[in-house]
């Protein structure tokens, strides 16, 4: 099995992180992977905020209410869309960028966890307030990043009952 498929199949959500910083070069690599994602009409509406400051990570965690996952991690990347670039595709394009970040993180030994912001209005408003976004910038999700401090096994989610060939 090739390394790309291994990384996809072995990626899992990490909830407990080591207190160990992520090198800026690795964060840059994750951003490069994000921006290699497909994008409707090549509009690239994604915008990213990389957060490594512990106080800011706690502030984001509190703003997102029901999540503790950002508090103890090394970094978070907030993925936002610029609706002035693409009102129609930004959520799709940003979701693809987020997936690329998580697979790339897996490939270099960094754990990740997707935390939804959209469509929760309270989370959206809280994040917009913290970062003082212009009206066209819409937060989609935060990706918590760090080195795993838990022993987890990826779930085998393949279920042939969900597959149809040629017709329903």
Automatic annotation (TrEMBL):
GO molecular function, one term: oxidoreductase activity
The Nitroreductase domain, residue ranges: 8-79, 84-147
Signal peptide feature range: none
Domain of life: Bacteria
Cited Gene3D superfamilies: NADH Oxidase
Record InterPro entries: Nitroreductase, Nitroreductase-like, Nitroreductase/BluB
PANTHER family referenced in this protein's UniProt entry, alphabetically: NAD(P)H NITROREDUCTASE RV3131-RELATED, NADPH NITROREDUCTASE
Name of the protein: Nitroreductase
Organism of origin: candidate division CPR2 bacterium GW2011_GWC2_39_10
Lineage, opening ranks: Bacteria, Bacteria division CPR2
